[in-house]
Amino acid sequence: ASHDYLPLVQLQQAQGPFQLTESFSEVVQIPLDRLHRASPYASHRASLSPMSPGARSSPEAGPCCEEGEEAVSGQDVGPEDLESASWATAVALAWLEHRCAGFFEEWELVAAKADAWLQAQRLPEGVDVGCLKGAARHLFLLLRHWDENIKLNMLCYNPNNV
């Protein structure tokens, strides 16, 4: 039995959330910049290097969040911390569903705790839990299609044609 969800479980904080850190990025095997780019929060996309002016309006991001909104948070967490923790928590839930579905009974309580934390947060206006979860699921669909395209290109690649 594969227990590749255990490293993620170890990153869960006592109250239930996950943090958007390099460690989290490594465990879910998604580069931190890609996590920021796919986030529904404008502040995450704005934090990307100014390599592309389109970083603020990334097509990967969901349409549910408005730029310039002030976050209202509970539990003495700053707005950016709440955005990062809520996005990481939504990604963690989607990762468990996509990568570890066969072990649902083993991580069910971890997910319930994360979901309860997420539901209890006062998220910024224009964002709700459904939006976050939808954006996280969308991220995994994009990644899966990207992986399938890479594999297809590898199958079709013939060095003699170059």
TrEMBL record:
Region named Disordered: 43-80
Domain of life the protein comes from: Eukaryota
Name listed for the protein in its UniProt record: von Willebrand factor A domain-containing protein 5B2
Species of origin: Tauraco erythrolophus
